């Protein structure tokens, strides 16, 4: 009796194990497909970006109800009226930063923590600021669970950047601003790059790449985008 029980328990556990291994494999497969079709199949060519996108489990950063859709070609709701960006947008903005592994990066708008996790695979240090405390704390917890240790999360208004940690080689703003916050330009290092969606709230914005060379600021529009608004406390 006991041995029969043990036997069936063993089978049940083996099945459970099988299910979880299967689930992991299929997430990996879906991620690989996402990279091939949505990213490399478009204009994402930067190898470090593609590698990072193939590694970070997007499903870990979305609410359980959204997990089945984690690898779809679109943004997803993450609570508090906010969204995790479409994978292509995460990759496009990452690629646009032209990162080197030694770069210090600042992200404004932690949201789910996914973009920060992608950046963490490419550079040594990522700092990220989120204005909604519950989102920032959840992102911090998920990053910790995934053993991602080179991301520092701060709760606050990203309009003022992160003075103590400046200057940054790259700044990525993942909320749509009406204009470029001057403090962020100040906190950008020489030869630094900033990527930021700029334009009127509720309208189409331009994704701007700003560069600083010998103190001179240049901006260029990369594409039209839609983003949740950059808010002020
Ligand atoms: N990068 C995120 C998606 C960001 S959505 C991800 O990978 O999931 C935009 C985020 O910017 C939201 O979480 C929003 O709360 C935050 N945000 C908006 N205004 C902000 C501000 N002034 N400072 C910091 N975060 C801000």
From TrEMBL:
Q: Which CDD domains match?
A: AdoMet_MTases
Keywords of this entry:
Cytoplasm, Methyltransferase, S-adenosyl-L-methionine, Transferase
Please name the InterPro entries in this protein's record: PCMT, SAM-dependent_MTases_sf
What are the EC numbers?
Answer: 2.1.1.77
Report the active site residues.
85
Per its UniProt record, what Pfam families does this chain match?
A: PCMT
Which reaction is recorded as catalysed by this protein? [protein]-L-isoaspartate + S-adenosyl-L-methionine = [protein]-L-isoaspartate alpha-methyl ester + S-adenosyl-L-homocysteine
Where does this polypeptide localize? Cytoplasm
Function, as annotated: Catalyzes the methyl esterification of L-isoaspartyl residues in peptides and proteins that result from spontaneous decomposition of normal L-aspartyl and L-asparaginyl residues. It plays a role in the repair and/or degradation of damaged proteins.
Q: What's the family?
A: Belongs to the methyltransferase superfamily. L-isoaspartyl/D-aspartyl protein methyltransferase family.
**HAMAP family registered for this protein in UniProt:** PIMT
- PANTHER family referenced in this protein's UniProt entry, alphabetically: PROTEIN-L-ISOASPARTATE O-METHYLTRANSFERASE (PTHR11579), PROTEIN-L-ISOASPARTATE(D-ASPARTATE) O-METHYLTRANSFERASE (PTHR11579:SF0)
| Protein known as | Protein-L-isoaspartate O-methyltransferase
Print the organism lineage.
Answer: Bacteria, Pseudomonadati, Bacteroidota, Flavobacteriia, Flavobacteriales
Name of the gene: pcm
